[in-house]
Amino acid sequence: MKKKITIKDILFLQAVVIVFTISSIIAKFASGQEFMTPAFVVFYGLEIAVLGIYAILWQQVIKKFDLSIAYANKAMGILWSMIWAVLIFHNEITIQNLIGVCLVVAGTIVLNSDLREKGTVEHE
Q1: Per-residue confidence at 38, pLDDT binned at 50, 70, 90?
Q2: 122 has which bridge partners?
Q3: What is the pTM of this model?
Q4: Is 84 exposed, middle or buried (0-12, 13-18, 19+ CB in 10 A)?
């Protein structure tokens, strides 16, 4: 492990994952526009800007976490995407969606708690 990881670091990692999922929301809005209309160009440009911000933030994440841990936490994007799908696009959630997301969240919790047990996560 590169450095002591705090709960604040894990929350920052999740915030970076949320930024990544926001780019997907913007992409969905762009896909609803006719190609090369002003609205399409604005959404597409905004998506590129958000992905640029995400890339910078991701570099900060991998300075703090081993890549294997950071990338495994990125799977939480499935949870955030499902939340956005319900809140923004009013999609319905199936039991299979819930089971899948619960498995991903459980795996991420196990992974992060394993960091804590090995003494690599510092309690604040």
Answers
A1: very high
A2: 6
A3: 0.79
A4: middle
